[in-house]
Amino acid sequence: MSGRNVFSETQLFYSSRPLRRSSNIMTEPFTSIKSLPEHVGERVTLKGWLYNKRGSKALYFLILRDGTGLVQCVVNQDNVDETSFAVAETATQESALEIVGTVNADERQVGGVEIHAESATLIAQAESYPITPKEHGVEFLMDNRHLWLRSQRQWAIMRVRNRIIMAIHAYFQSEGYIQMDPPVLTGNAVEGTSTLFELEYFDKPAYLTQSGQLHGEAMAMAHGKIYTFGPTFRAEKSKTRRHLTEFWMIEPEMAFYDLDMDMQVAEELLLAIVGDVLRDCRDELEILGRDFAKLDLIQGPFPRISYDEAVELLHSDETQRILDAEHEETTAEEKVLKEERTANRAAYGQAKKGEKRRIDAREIDINKRLDEIEEDLRNIPAWKESAANFEWGADFGGSDETVLTKHFDRPIIVHRFPAVIKAFYMKRDPEDDRLALGMDVLAPEGYGEIVGGGERATDLAFLKQQVQDHGLPEEVFDWYFDLRRYGSVPHSGFGIGLERTVAWICGLHHVRETIPFPRLMGRIHP
RNA sequence: UCCUCGGUAGCUCAGCGGUAGAGCAUGCGGCUGUUAACCGCAGGGUCGUAGGUUCGAAUCCUACCCGGGGAGCCA
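^ inputs. structure came back:
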């Protein structure tokens, strides 16, 4: 598309790469760990927190964390004054430190450098830190989310999240979209189906928004192409790895765009996100253990599959074969893991202390995975049945979505759904009145629906009828109807869930790790 | 709302009718190149809560509370 030349400039502007040294020195009288490879042989001042420590009587290795990376600082009794050495001896995990020393290249270390310290100064001694360098359970980590964010994996995820946010802005800005902020407090339900958080608004009921789309449509009639970027609230009682009660959604809305163009935008946006993350977040993806090959496969065009074709696919023998193969693979993995566990337990008695700890940690991993496997093995027969007996007119369940994506190695776009299962504002397919011009993008690897949208209805009488048929109060939509009274045009848009996208790109098990402070059913603290 | 798994030391877990355990973390001691460093010693528990069964309950039963992940619904 035209305007791509702007993209590269915008890209630079939004880049998450470190600032250039000149500007860095002007604003900060200390050096970031990330930039240390540029300072080999130089004397630098570092400020950060003690991530981990190893040592002996006269030599300590301090692993320092400053938010940009980790580096090992060697504190040798012969090279520092007494106070500095005492700091190295007594500093506890997460104590804040300032360290001055020279940068030495050392291939053995993380980041390829280590610091030979001249001095160490204590900024603040930390109390006994709850998150120790070992395995922790979900509940404990969630209770300590404010501290968990300092851990490497969480750090990497937040970096990728930031990069994805910037990629989204860069894409839309370069394509001539205007960012708009829709209201968070609303008096109307867009879909009418989801449960809303209700609150009191000067003695009247109001709701936290579940979508900015309707207001986005109004803005699109003023600017042509717009996108929202803001929080969304759903009071659904969903306790699954894909649900948050508060999440961030991006909703573009384009005047004079039909369904095909809408799908094109969704595809381009996702390709831009994957491309930017792959280019700028290699280290982060490495920390997360993400399989690069899986992301390299994400290239256009994404398969477009009609709802009818999707139903056929669910009914196909190939679907049954895929699920049978999965059942077999999972059973085989279960066997291998159980054998390893048995072997580990047999070796445990004679094992040294360090080895015992490794076995313990491995046992936790194995048990966690075995729980998942057990669940999958229980579910696969149900998935097979759900797919085989899927009836035209129903909405896809979570397992159906997963099964559909297993036929492909990249995201797929499913379009033209039965109108009855879609929102009232969707335009009908002129070729088949039973269908709505909606589309969903399903991410691969079981991540499911990350985009939902479609072409909007333009006819006032039809919309009014729809509102009535859905049992919605007509009066709250008066302003929305006006958009059809004053120059109604074909237009389309979609919503993309930020957290589900981050989970997919990072290869995470649960969306709760994709947002700094997740809000879940039964969890609103910290 | 339903189904399912769990709650034992600060953390991760073992123990499943007969004296409350391990590793990590913490404290003390040792060690000049460690990579979740290592070695020794020590402190640390109303076994989620309330009932019940029993000579005896962390263990068995009932109810409740809290959490995990799944269904429905959805991004």
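Residues 353-388 of chain A form the longest helix (36 residues). Residues 1-24 of chain A have pLDDT under 50 and may be disordered.
thumbs up if we can close this ticket
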